[in-house]
Design goal:
globular, 5 strands, 10 helices
Length: 269
């Protein structure tokens, strides 16, 4: 059965990517999938990160989930009889191998034929915003701060690899551009980035719970409270006035060179 268009938005954490996903939830011609590769990455038998080992019993429904099963699910979703396209929002860190330097032919855990079937796009946000946001989420959820979770190196590796694999540079948007000029940037993304039409209804939505976000409790509160890119609401909580510790400040500094390099490659109005 022939599959419809599959669009990936690859991101790092705290990048406004979930709000971006909400724009595609508004479209009737797309089916959206929220971070499906996180399940095999953290909980399945092929998991590539072990720091959720202590909470595996809380995610028992994912313990047998493999990458191939997620790929099959995406392809099956794209073969729907309603002729709907598929929009997948996920983290580069969920698919880039931790030892990617040893796998120059394919630094990901995904097969090349699947990657070639999809349209790949990226979103980026300055570490000055994303790193403190990540730290606050960890504090709010009473979890230990994991600097590596920020995901800038994996985003850069995936961007460079997919550029080489496809022979063209994927569309890359910067969150600050999106928040400043949502209509312009979203129109460019649709028309030039994924070669599809732009719909004005993508720019605003109702503040409401999105069921697909529930598996990552506490991580998507702002996206669910938002009503548009320039109206992303943040409920004030006890983490707002936290002083940033040295390791968080260091992570911001370490991430800036990657951000700056990718920023130069972004879509511009």
């Amino acid at each position: 059965m022939e599959t419809n268009k599959i669009v990936f938005l690859w991101s790092h954490v705290r990048s406004i990517s979930t709000a971006f996903e909400r724009a595609f939830i508004q479209r009737e011609d797309y089916i959206t999938l929220h971070e499906p590769f996180g399940e095999p990455c953290y909980f399945g038998p092929e998991r590539i990160y072990a720091y959720h080992e202590a909470t595996l019993d809380q995610h028992s429904e994912y313990l047998n989930t493999t990458y191939s099963e997620i790929i099959e699910m995406i392809l099956k979703t794209a073969s729907n009889t309603e002729n709907k396209k598929v929009f997948v929002k996920d983290m580069a860190r969920h698919v880039v191998r931790p030892d990617y330097k040893l796998h120059p032919q394919n630094p990901t855990v995904l097969p090349l034929d699947f990657l070639k079937k999809c349209t790949h796009t990226f979103i980026l946000r300055t570490p000055e915003k994303s790193v403190p946001s990540l730290y606050r989420v960890y504090r709010k959820t009473n979890a230990d701060f994991i600097p590596e979770d920020i995901g800038y190196p994996e985003l850069q590796v995936l961007f460079q690899f997919l550029t080489e694999l496809t022979g063209s540079r994927p569309a890359l948007i910067d969150a600050s551009d999106l928040l400043t000029e949502p209509t312009t940037i979203m129109r460019m993304y649709c028309e030039s980035g994924i070669h599809d039409r732009f719909e004005p209804g993508m720019l605003e939505w109702k503040a409401e719970r999105v069921q697909g976000f529930d598996k990552w409790d506490g991580w998507h509160d702002e996206a669910q409270q938002s009503t548009g890119f320039n109206r992303i609401q943040k409920a004030k909580d006890s983490t707002d006035d936290l002083a940033l510790p040295d390791d968080v400040k260091q992570l911001m500094e370490q991430s800036m060179p990657i951000y700056n390099a990718l920023y130069q490659l972004r879509m511009r109005s």
